[in-house]
Design goal:
alpha/beta; TIM Barrel; 2 domains; four-stranded parallel beta sheet; about 10% strand; Uronate isomerase; isomerase; Uronate_isomerase; EC 5.3.1.12; Metal_Hydrolase
């Protein structure tokens, strides 16, 4: 018995479902463009077999372990490495059994849909995972992972990935990207410039990171002018390794535009650790505007991922580090917050700033109207907690009437979970086709237009927005 229904996520009304099916058939097999994510370039550089099923699917995926933790399972029991090297479970089969016996927790979630898709379409498993079949599923996946056509490069090609962008910090040497390029492999894996560690004064080791930035670039990061030159140098280095975009993960969307003297004085305070919390937030705000100015200079697309209270649990962050499932959405203002930056660069026709949010209340009220008028702005797809059937549908319903389709940028999967990439893109294609079908059957879109829009949302918009 199949795990997945053929018409999953399509409308239930017969005529709309028929149109959705027809649309989907034209985009189902289009190449995957993955312009933003967090897969590990080392996989593609070294092309080694993936580890056991647990360390491929469970251990690195915060979507999975945050749900298990919410029901009392400990991160150490799931094999998540500790900061200080304290013992954690390392037996993949034990981790997998714990995951399988709790698989019911994922009922109704997008994670369940992604997992079932991978189990069925990648590993040929057609029975729902449970405690009773955990070992059988584990053995089947392990058997697959030992085969040559399950190495990272082979899966990249099997998934139909045309291009995938990873995300590296400003201080990364990009050695794995260099190795990919020198290997002669034809797969296109590019990097993205993520400068949070040298932009956010609250980032651990910020002062030392600035010193290292200066060492890497030969620029004087003791001055604000030298610091900006160091960013220019690193951005150029990243572009040499394929980067077309930058990415900025800020707690708020606040921007600021300061005079040269004000910016230099503020930088001196944050650099030397003499700044207040308000000044550190002002510096982050300033740097969003400065990064937008640099994008006008060098043509890199700018992504702003705002609105996450990151590492909400201090004890978990101390024991297991950053990005362990304790990032929580919070309200985010965009109208006032972005105005200083938009006053400077918002009308630049050659600039693309892609906005993401974890605050759905702003879609219709703030983000769609902003993107619907400023040439520099585009709306990123539903992100993180809203990368789901309901989240995608709400997004289209709330932004299309004001921003249209062509101020959005298609889909990106934003994932570390490599095996879920085809499933995530398939969900987006199905949801968009269902939405377009309902526009057709309610007389709001001609059917020939719907086929064109479906192709654009699946493929063209992402390529154009990210300059791929």
């Amino acid at each position: 018995m199949a795990l997945l229904a053929d018409d999953r996520l399509f409308p239930t009304e017969a005529r709309s479902r028929a149109v959705a099916r027809a649309l989907y058939e034209t985009v189902q097999s289009l190449p995957i463009v993955s312009p933003h994510g967090h897969t590990d370039p080392r996989w593609f550089a070294e092309n080694r077999h993936f580890p056991d099923p647990a360390h491929l699917i469970v251990v690195p995926d915060h979507y999975i372990f945050r749900m298990l933790v919410s029901q009392g399972v400990k991160l150490a029991e799931l094999g998540v490495p500790s900061v200080d090297g304290s013992p954690v479970e390392t037996d993949g089969r034990v981790i997998w059994r714990r995951f399988a016996e709790n698989y019911h927790l994922f009922r109704g979630t997008p994670t369940r849909l992604w997992l079932d898709d991978a189990f069925q379409n990648l590993f040929g498993i057609n029975e729902r995972l449970s405690a009773g079949n955990a070992d059988r599923a584990y053995d089947r996946i392990a058997e697959c992972l030992a085969q040559e056509d399950f190495r990272p490069r082979a899966l990249f090609e099997r998934f139909g990935v045309e291009v995938i962008a990873t995300t590296e910090g400003a201080l990364d040497d990009l050695a794995y990207h260099r190795a990919i390029k020198e290997s002669g492999w034809s797969g296109r894996v590019i990097t993205t410039y993520r400068p949070d560690a040298v932009v956010d004064p609250d980032f651990p080791g910020f002062a030392g990171n600035l010193v290292r930035l200066g060492e890497l670039t030969g620029c004087d990061t003791g001055t604000f002018a030298g610091y900006l030159d160091a960013h220019r140098a690193r951005r150029s280095f990243f572009r040499e390794h394929g980067a077309t975009a930058t990415d900025h993960g800020h707690p708020t969307a606040r921007t600021a535009d300061l005079s040269a003297a004000e910016a230099a004085a503020l930088y001196d305070r944050v650099r030397t650790g003499q700044s207040s919390p308000d000044e550190r937030e002002l510096f982050r705000a300033l740097m969003l505007t400065e990064m937008a100015k640099l994008s006008v200079e060098d043509g890199m697309v700018m992504q702003i991922h705002a609105g996450s209270f990151r590492n909400h649990s201090v004890p978990v962050a101390a024991a297991f580090g950053r990005d362990k499932g304790f990032d929580i959405p919070q309200p985010t203002n965009y109208v006032d917050a972005l105005k200083p930056m938009l006053d400077v660069v918002g009308m630049e026709p050659g600039l693309t700033i892609i906005l993401f949010t974890l605050d759905e209340t702003v879609y219709g009220r703030e983000l769609a109207p902003l993107a619907g008028v400023y040439p520099a702005l585009r709306l990123g797809p539903p992100w993180w907690f809203f990368d789901s059937y309901e989240g995608m549908k709400r997004f289209r319903e709330q932004v299309t009437e004001t921003a249209g389709f062509y101020n959005t940028v298609g889909f990106n999967d934003d994932t570390r979970a490599f095996c879920s990439i085809p499933a995530r893109h398939d969900v987006a294609r199905r949801v968009d086709c269902g939405y377009l079908a309902e526009l057709v059957t309610t007389g709001r879109l001609d059917e020939d237009e719907a086929f064109e829009v479906a192709h654009d949302l699946t493929y063209r918009l992402a390529k154009e927005a990210y300059r791929l």
